[in-house]
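Hey forum,

I'm writing up a methods section and want to include a predicted complex as supplementary material. The small molecule is zinc ion. I've pasted the protein sequence and the SMILES. Can someone with a working setup run it? I'll credit the forum in the acknowledgements.
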Amino acid sequence: MKLTFWGTRGSIPAPGPHTYRVGGNTTCVEIETGTDDRIIIDAGTGMRQLGLKIAQEQVKPVLHLLLTHSHWDHLAGFSFFTPAFMAHIQLKVYGNLMAQDVIRRDIYERRDNRYYPVNMDVLRADCTFNNILPDPLVIAGVKISTLPLNHPGSGYAYRLEQAGKSVTFITDNEIGAGYNGGGHSPEQLVEFCRGTDVLIHDGQYLPEEIPSHKGWGHSSYDTVLDLAHSAGLKTVYLTHHDPERSDDQCDELLKSARAYIAEHKYKIDCYLAIEGDSITV
Ligand SMILES: [Zn+2]
Ligand SMILES: [Zn+2]
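Reply by user p_vandermeer:
Happy to help. Structure tokens for the complex are below, copy them as they are.
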């Protein structure tokens, strides 16, 4: 699988001279499966650029959009996703039902101009919404399993496995927190991640920022690294970067994370998820 980050910023887009290296677009990840089926996780503003790329491809892939949850930073790119306006494109939407509902009701089926100058009846792709999410869901030989997030409003973490390789994507998750009616225990989280080749996890905060952001549904790098160590993982990417954090401050966060690894004698390689970067597993 080849995974490309099209957006790694959290909460709201943060373009500008201080964020251009890490990137200002919100969450969107593309997973190329080696077949005509393409998996996309989340429809944040990074989805616009991904759409432009797909529109130029000779053979149009079947698109499978997995939604983590309904917060706007994970959906705002859909209305500017060029393949959604193209006939003959197959777009299959899965995942969090509230997120699917927002896309269907407020974007796909909206026939007035309250949000956009263009009526959404020009969305011509063959779009299907899937209320039932099999566990596992299998797409093009990729086995996809889920875990409920510890995040206000709930949502899904996704683990993708193909040919003995795996990548686990967990954004908008507050490690150690629980929410009424959803979420997971610390043990369930460790088991969900165990043995994965690459863990991509929300690392929005510094440890010292957590007390003033408790209950906001995000994690600090130290808890992500403790999780990775408990699950025996070797490679971690931190994502959902705080919109207030400049490129230099993101570098500082990564430096602190690597110092934490050294201090605890963990055997983990830690990186920032950077817009435009790809990982092959
Ligand atoms: Zn978010
Ligand atoms: Zn969220």
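Some notes you might quote in the supplement: The chain is about 20% helix and 25% strand. Residues 10-11, 71, 73-74, 172, 240 surround zinc ion (ligand 1) (CB under 6 Å).
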